[in-house]
Amino acid sequence: MNMVDITAAQAAYRDELVESGLLIPTGVDGLYGRSGVFEDVVERFDALVTRWGGQDGAEVMRFPPALNRQYFEESEYLKSFPHLAGTIHAFGGDEKAHRTLLRRLEEGQDWTEDQVATDVVMTPAACYPVYPTIAQRGALPGDGKLIDVFSYCFRREPSIDPARMQLFRMREYIRIGTPDQVVEFRELWLERGREMMGSLEVPLDVDVANDPFFGRAGAMLSSSQREQKLKFELLIPITSNEKPTACLSFNYHQDHFGHLWDIHTADGGVAHTACVGFGMERVALALFRHHGFDPAQWPASVRKVLWG
Amino acid sequence: MVAGIRSVLAECGGLAVDAGTLAIDDDLYSAGLTSHGCVGLMLGLEEQFDVEFPEKLLNRRTFESIAAIRDAVRGLVDGGEA
């Protein structure tokens, strides 16, 4: 399947989803409303994740989909992904500036140039607020920390692929601790992820992956990430068999975030971190693709896993 | 060239040890070179030697030791690829 065919398949699936009412278009690629049926699937999958991971004693944290700009700056996200970041700007002028803004708006000119950066930035991945929060608490307990987060995330990558949204939800478990604790967590979830998604009767594969780092520095980081097998993805075909979609990811950050925010283990070492992320919309889209647009007609075994 | 590589390593590599004490075959990753440190090192080497690493050299092996870096840079300076 070449690029033209892939793009056509993505557009066709998006059109089907819109026509069926599962996705509600907004006029912006990658920005959709969701129907009640779509949301029910997301909620049931969210509950399934809790069934698999909820006994591990994670501390639940729920953040809004925006991040303290200072945390964002400290995260060095702009070094690696400047092209995906979404910063929030707002009007900060006086009445004269307001009149200018309205005039420009009316005349169809650019009215945004006097907007100023606020102290919030869109959350690029659900785990970003967690590291500075944990760092502030001081050294980790002996058994480290396990955190459960769930948030809308923003990435500026408009696409007609319904599986590449600009605003989407990510559930995550994050492990912070010694290298051994963190690696054990990731191994556990690689196994669990496979088994859990297998129970939903979708075709899947797990493979080494890399993040979409920016530029030539990014090429270096990507190849390094692959060589060290720091990222795995659980892939399910949605609009293409040749290029299946990453629906879960298993990431080992080594001591990157531990260093950035000075997170220490009980024995004084720099903390290592790992996370497992669940792409909620992508999983829902995969289920609709493989079992049809009407969950009432899904195989009884799959319905039992999700609805009990 | 090795002296130039050592000075870029000291400045950009973020190593845990003194770059001057490393043997040319020592593993730089064992000496504390991280992925992000490697990016700084790559950019520093490009500036120091006025070369540009092609994408196929942008991997961990190219920067694993002073000797490996020397061979790669030499290849680029000579106009070929290491």
TrEMBL record, chain A:
CDD domains: Gly_His_Pro_Ser_Thr_tRS_core
Keywords: Ligase, Plasmid
Enzyme Commission identifier(s): 6.2.1.n2
One MF term in the entry's GO annotations: ligase activity
Protein's name according to its UniProt entry: Amino acid--[acyl-carrier-protein] ligase
Source organism of this protein record: Azospirillum oryzae
From TrEMBL, chain B:
The Carrier domain, residue ranges: 1-77
Pfam families: PP-binding (PF00550)
PROSITE patterns, A to Z: CARRIER
Keyword Metal-binding in annotation: no
Keywords for this protein: Plasmid
Record keyword Ligase present: no
Cross-referenced InterPro entries: ACP-like_sf (IPR036736), PP-bd_ACP (IPR009081)
NCBIfam families the record matches: PRK07081.1 (NF005480)
Protein name: Acyl carrier protein
Organism of this sequence: Azospirillum oryzae
